[in-house]
Structures are given as structure tokens and as C-alpha cells.
Write a structure and sequence with these properties.
Helix content is 95%, strand content 0%. It is mainly alpha-helical and 116 residues long. It has one domain. The protein is rod-shaped and about 155 Å long.
């Protein structure tokens, strides 16, 4: 009797095991899909937030850099203009002095020729 009962029990056990494995696989697949969907949503939200933060930081850094570059350029331009103006003033004064001296030397007046 036990020999006849063993194949029946074995078959029933195999059917139960297969059914249980099928249910576990379906459950695991559903849970895995749901978990992957949640992870994908979280990852997408985090990526968007990170990109937004990076964009904001980049915009702020770019504006600050442009402000610094503008200030430096303005200071350099003003300094260069002051230097050029000073050099031009010195050259103009020297040139006017030379012209005045030349005019004095070529003057017909005796006092101017002696001075020169």
C-alpha cells in the first residue's frame, strides 16, 4: 500500500510545488516590476531635480563670472585710457614746447634768438 501511495504523493507534491513556484514567480515578477517602476520614477525625479540644481548653479556661476569679467574689463579699460591720456598729454605738451621754442628761435626779434 505504501508503494502505491508513494507515486501518488510524489505526483501531488510535484503539482503543489509547481503551482507554488508559479505563484511565487508571478508574485516576484509583479513585485519586481512595481519596484522597478518605483525606482525608475524616483530616479527620474532625482535626475530632474539634480539637473535643475546644476542648471541653477551653472547660471549663477556664469552670471557671477560675467560680472567679474565685466568689472575687470571696465577697470582695465579705464586704466588704459588714463595711461593713454597721460601719455598723450605729455607728448602734446612736449610737442607744444618744441613748437614754441622753434617759433622763438626763428623769430626776427633779437631777444627771442638769444633766449633760444
Amino acid at each position: 500500500m505504501s508503494r502505491a501511495l508513494l507515486p501518488v504523493m510524489n505526483a501531488a507534491y510535484a503539482v503543489k510545488t509547481r503551482a507554488l513556484l508559479q505563484v511565487m514567480n508571478a508574485t516576484d515578477t509583479s513585485m519586481s516590476r512595481a519596484l522597478l517602476q518605483v525606482m525608475n520614477t524616483v530616479y527620474t525625479i532625482m535626475t530632474r531635480a539634480l539637473l535643475q540644481v546644476m542648471n541653477t548653479v551653472y547660471t549663477v556661476k556664469t552670471r557671477a563670472l560675467l560680472q567679474v569679467m565685466n568689472t575687470v574689463f571696465t577697470v582695465m579699460t579705464c586704466t588704459l585710457l588714463h595711461i593713454m591720456n597721460a601719455a598723450y598729454t605729455v607728448k602734446t605738451r612736449a610737442l607744444l614746447q618744441i613748437i614754441h621754442c622753434y617759433d622763438s628761435c626763428t623769430s626776427t626779434s633779437h631777444e627771442h634768438r638769444i633766449h633760444c
